[in-house]
Structures are given as C-alpha cells and as structure tokens.
Glutathione S-transferase (Myxozyma melibiosi), 324 residues
Amino acid sequence: MVALPDDSTATGPGIEADQRSGQADPDGKFRRQASAFRDVIAPGHERFPPEKGRYVLYVCATCPWAHRALIMVKLKGLEEFVDVVWLHWELGEKGWYFKEVDNSPAKDPYYGFTYLREFYFRANPDYDKRFTVPMLWDRKLETIVNNESSEIIRILNTAFNELLPADKAAIDVYPEDLRPEIDEINEWVYNTVNNGVYKTGFAQTQEAYDENVYPLFASLERLETILSDGREFLLGSRLTEADIRLYVTIIRFDAAYFTLFRCNIKMIRYEFPHLQNWLMHLYYDFPTVFKETTFLEQLKKGYSGVQKIELVPAGPVPLMMPRE
Ligand SMILES: N[C@@H](CCC(=O)N[C@@H](CS)C(=O)NCC(=O)O)C(=O)O
C-alpha cells in the first residue's frame, strides 16, 4: 500500500483510522450504509437549479456506483454542464484520494484537496459516515448535492434537459411507461447482484458468504433467461436505467469479482452466453458511453487493494473478450 501524505484537514469525528478495514459488521456480514446527502438538481429548484459549469461529479475507476453516474454524463452529453473529476483508483487509508496517475490529477482542481473526505467535511464539519463516490458537488454553495448513485443517475437523466440539444434531452432511461418494470428489476438486481457481489466479497464468515453467493448466481441465471429471447436490452428494445445499473457490475465480474470477491461458481464470458452478448453489445456498439468509461486495468488494481491482497491476479486473459 502506498504511504499517503498526512493532512490534518482530512480528519473528522467518528471515522475509523483505516478506510479499507471495517467493511463488514461484527457478525461478518457487509451492510451498505445509507447515503447522507439526498438533494436534487431541478429546474426552478430553490438551492440547486441547473446551471452550466456549477456542478462537479467526483468518480473513480474502481467504483461501479460512480460508473453509473459517469455513464449518464456521457449518454446525455452533459460534459459541458457537469465537470467530471477523477480520484485515484486505490482506496487509501483515509479513503479515496488524488494522485497524478491515470485519470486522476495530483490534487482537486477546484480546491486543491488531496482527499475526498475534505469535501465531506467542507459540506458538514460533523460528518461521521463513509466518504463515498460518486459525489455530486455544488461549487456555488460549496456543498454536496447528492452522494447516492441511484438518485444521481435520475438527476442527470432530467435536470439539464432544458439546456440540452433536443436529441440529448429526449434520451430518457427512466421512461414513465417502463417505471414499474424498471423498479421491479432494480430491486432484486441491486440486492443480489450489484450489492450481492459486495456482500459475497466482504463476507467474513462462511455463513455470510454462502448466504450471498448462491442468490447472486441464481439472479445471474434469471438474467440469462430474460435475455435468452434475443432482446437487445434488459427490458426490450430501449436502453434503460436497468441496463446501466447491471452493466457496471457485469463488466467488473470476470475481471474482478470472480477472483477477488470469490464469486467464482461461473464466469460470465464462458457460461452466460446471453449476458455476455448483451455486455458485448453495450461495450462495443456504444463505445463512448460504455467502453470509454470502463477502465479494467485500473479497477482490477483497485479491487486488489481493497481486499488487501497486494497482488493483482494475472487473469482473466484477455480482460474483455474481443469481438472476433
Ligand atoms: N449507495 C452508494 C454507495 C457508494 C459506495 O459505497 N461507494 C464506494 C466505492 S465502490 C466507496 O466510495 N467506498 C468508500 C468507503 O466506503 O470508504 C451509492 O450507490 O452511491
């Protein structure tokens, strides 16, 4: 693990010293904490109206939740409205930090901060929860608008529509008529797949591991069956939020979760042909949205560090299957 620069402004109350430890509760089970900042950007909003150049999205390559939000920025063509700033892919002792490697600058370009936690303390000096990405920051009020990816993707889906060209404004990944279906699939995919890989990977007892690894694979089988009728996207012919939320987990599966989170009953590439076709379609046919937002080498190193295995596994080879 690299030594991190000491920075006394990067400390706060109630946080364990090493952000990489303590992922599981004392009973050996991993429970994801509820996000603390839950505001929205919306036209006419008293505090957070849509405005060009005002908001910044903080992400890192390792994190699937941040990846969801990044995909929305690209899909909706929001680069001019929401600046994307990258933290280094490694979760350090004090959480996510900047380091001039790969996509990350040496320091935050707006505040000169070294750690993500510094934003959390700027927003709330008494903040005592985890310092997570994605984090949507408002430069005007100097606070966090929202740090819950499921909400950030909905904000990005609509908030800037009146400022966008018509073709981008028309893109809607949570369309009214599909909402019940999207909500239904999101619920079990979140519990057993998106968060299921974490509950499996961070389990500290055999019981906690078994409780999660089998439901995870049962859900992958269920997704495989859904896609087996040859549909283009999860809910039919339209790309929706459900695809985006699933993509960020499936693209990490063979490269990281299979080995590093012990999700190794089957590999996606060899044993789930329909899921693999759906993944290849998104990755190769919408490259600016999916492929170019995916950094497999970086995220594999990121997950290796979180597991404190300081060795990066050699496989799978290749990291993503070529098309031919
Ligand atoms: N519910 C949050 C979860 C975000 C989250 O847990 N992000 C992880 C990275 S994958 C993180 O930043 N962890 C840092 C930590 O827990 O210290 C969301 O979906 O936005």
Q: What stands out?
A: The chain has a mean pLDDT of 92. The CA atoms of residues 65 and 150 lie 8 Å apart. The first strand starts at residue 55 and ends at 59. Residues 19, 32, 35, 63, 65, 91, 95, 130-134, 148-150 surround glutathione (CB under 6 Å).
